[in-house]
Design a protein that fits this description.
The structure is a homodimer of 445-residue chains.
Chain A (H helix, E strand, L loop, with lengths): L11 E4 L24 H13 L4 E4 L21 H8 L7 E7 L5 H14 L4 E6 L16 H19 L7 E4 L4 E3 L9 E2 L4 E2 L14 E4 L4 H10 L2 E4 L4 H17 L8 E11 L2 H13 L3 H11 L29 H12 L5 H11 L3 E6 H13 L5 E4 L4 H17 L12 H5 L10
Parallel strand pairs in A: 1-2, 1-13, 2-3, 3-4, 4-9, 9-10, 10-11, 11-12, 11-13
Antiparallel strand pairs in A: 5-6, 7-8
Helix pairs in contact in A: 3-4, 4-5, 5-6, 7-10, 8-10, 11-12
Chain lengths: 445, 445
């Protein structure tokens, strides 16, 4: 299947860098900036590196909890809550999009709509919201029974409808500011929402005027059935884990078809699979770096994380060289969170018979995203191939470590630019313009 | 009653500027910056003016709703949600404290604790949280029955206990970052909270390490009985509306005695009454400016706001020159929100027999805070008198308009400095240091 005609001619790139590398062992690697961990200056520097490389967006993933046991050997999730951090970064960057992850399960839609809209005002139209339903963290939010997957997605659908409705409260010309006549705004152009649904009751209007982008960009990363519908209905950017090119093409086709079914244009959804690039001077060098990173991982912690990805499988007694016996793995239908990721690890363990070490390597490097090792040229080739054949509209970069991040910008981006596959300057100002997606029309809601 | 020995030798000043003036009519006044309203640049400029004047804190009040009817003639609450805005301002200021208002009624304690802790990290120890229980906004948060005053304060007490407990999760030396040994943190120094109370169930730990300030500063502004207890237990800075010096002294004495009862030092609570200064070249000039501002107010809107301050009183048919007949005013005990403010307006209307215009003037200028008009010298005298006689540890400035804000910094601050009553340079770095209040010890919780 060739690229759809509506697809963009250049790929889109976002950076999800954690605190300088997403690999579990990255902080221990020579050249990591673990001493700067927890400073806003490190985050400013990462965002500015991404902006200097002309990326579409700086993407902040998030969890609302910390794994206390794993703290000994791995850095926990960011110090900084994404919306406050990105508001700070907005003052030190000019063009790059700023995407904050926030949970529909743990937040109130009025506050979330307001904070994302404020980020859009502060950044002059560069805000994005990555809507997640969360599969961990309930212990910090009073849930006595953890809502199941479908219930979380039902809430997420209603949540997103409230948020977008609130973002549409103000018409673009609602502000009058006529000193002499004493007319500040035109109340006829500021609309209540009066939402009264099964989970939320929100009157509105939002206390933030029209967003510079019309609406901030919604990003979605769920790949389950309800996740795909949520993405197709609301998201302009979809972040997905795809190992296989054919499956990725099928996924993109499915998302675009669903979007069309919801009355949207196929080109208004940009799908970016995750990519963890290990870049060496030679292919052998890249493989060596991959193994070095894996050697920095704490084995019991890594196996425990793998067990989580496998739906809470019992991996006790298994060594790194073992293949997991099928009886150890729970039935996919019983898994309530990150279901699509579970299906991937399940398949690699059962159909492809990957060893525990190889599975751990994938999990530790990029928690299940496409991970490739090679020279800059080989990485660029692999990316170009997927882009040209309609298996990706671009990528969310998940550099395993600080040095791989720098190498990607120094070595791979210039190759993509030479080939005409990536921008050589920012043409737009807003995230929506970088992605080439239109703003939903208020009337079409 | 003279100043208590524990009181500071210099006054503390915070600025609550709205968007350049808190008077209802301010946006219409010559020199207002209403054209810049909604830009982060305006807020940056206000914060920097306050920092150049060496103020302790830049204070952002907040509501989680917009009054759609009043939009025609008055600017609504800020575009910017306080925590995101102050995170942005942290990158453009160096020393001034940054205090964000956030509601205990509409928020989750884990998220709030995290965002304030992030602001403290971003600003390197300058964050404050003004904990409010909110008396409006329920329509945006699904409440079918609005919780009454006491219920809101019970929630607020538990909320504050959870937040401070989460802030204490990490011991100062919990981070190890030992690359070679593969030890990132010492889990024995990262503590769960395991809070299981009537309203919240929060396991912790927080996913933000120890705050630069030990704990961010808590600010409280309720003056009712449960409000005073909340302040005395948790707050390092208390913002209060006080017209009368004797009452203000009694209030401060009461708050400090309650704090002592909770095992705290009297000097660890700084009480700052609000102050709305109208500064003229002469006394007559100041009076003229006050009347000019009142003339810019929309009368029906102002009377409606006054009716709100009077607990929903029916003021229909009353003219500006009338005194409110006592039968129009509801019983104070039946009023559920902003009760102390209601008692003030009730007293002025019934005991002092203020006219509707005079009441509106107070409400529109500063919604009930101490409002004085005079020359810079007279304003400084009035402030000095209250400070020297123990009726204030300083003030939260509520300049009615942009020009009054500028005049205060240009004319009043230098007089206070000459008299040795206000700092001539920042001595500390954190908000806690500016206020001269110690950080609560984790062990004392």
């Amino acid at each position: 299947m060739a690229r759809e005609l509506t697809a963009p001619a250049r790929m889109h790139l976002a950076l999800s860098a954690g605190v300088g590398g997403v690999h579990q062992g990255a902080w221990r690697r020579e050249g990591s900036r673990v001493e700067e961990w927890g400073t806003i200056e490190l985050m400013v520097d990462l965002a500015r590196q991404a902006e200097a490389a002309l990326l579409d967006a700086f993407f902040i993933s998030d969890l609302s909890s910390v794994n206390r046991e794993a703290l000994r050997v791995q850095q926990p999730y960011l110090y900084f809550e994404p919306l406050t951090m990105l508001s700070a970064l907005a003052m030190r960057t000019e063009r790059i999009g700023l995407v904050a992850t926030a949970s529909t399960t743990f937040s109130e839609p009025y506050t979330l709509a307001r904070q994302v809209a404020a980020l859009d005002q502060i950044s002059k139209g560069r805000a994005g919201w990555n809507a997640v339903t969360s599969s961990v963290g309930s212990q910090n939010f009073g849930h006595r029974e953890w809502p199941d997957h479908d219930t979380r997605y039902e809430r997420a659908e209603e949540f997103a409808a409230v948020v977008t409705g609130l973002w549409d409260s103000w018409e673009p010309d609602a502000l009058v500011r006529d000193r002499a006549a004493g007319r500040f705004a035109d109340p006829a152009k500021v609309h209540p929402l009066d939402h009264d649904g099964p989970r939320f009751r929100v009157a509105g209007p939002l206390n933030v005027p029209r967003s510079p982008q019309g609406r901030p960009v919604i990003v979605q990363a769920g790949s389950s059935e309800p996740g795909r519908d949520l993405a197709a209905r609301h998201a302009s950017m979809v972040f997905t884990a795809q190992q296989d090119a054919d499956e990725s093409r099928a996924f993109i086709h499915d998302i675009r078809s669903r979007a069309e079914g919801f009355g949207r244009r196929r080109s208004d959804v940009v799908v970016l699979p995750g990519l963890s690039p290990v870049i060496g001077d030679t292919e052998e060098d890249a493989t060596r770096i991959r193994e070095e990173l894996l050697d920095l991982v704490d084995e019991p912690t890594a196996v425990a994380r793998l067990a989580d990805q496998l739906g809470g499988a019992d991996l006790s007694g298994l060594g790194f060289s073992d293949v997991i016996p099928p009886g150890r793995l729970p039935d996919p239908a019983s898994v309530q969170g990150r279901r699509s990721r579970y299906e991937l690890f399940h398949r690699l363990a059962t159909t492809e018979l990957w060893t525990v070490r190889r599975l751990v390597g994938l999990e530790a490097a990029s928690y299940g995203h496409w991970s490739i090792a090679g020279t800059a040229e080989q990485i660029a080739d692999a990316m170009s191939e997927r882009f040209r054949t309609g298996a990706a509209d671009g990528f969310v970069l998940l550099p395993p470590s600080q040095d791989m991040l720098t190498r990607f910008f120094e070595r791979v981006v210039p190759i993509l630019q030479e080939r005409g596959l990536f921008r050589t300057e920012y043409e737009g100002v807003t995230l929506r313009e970088h992605l080439g997606v239109s703003a939903p029309d208020r009337a079409s809601v």
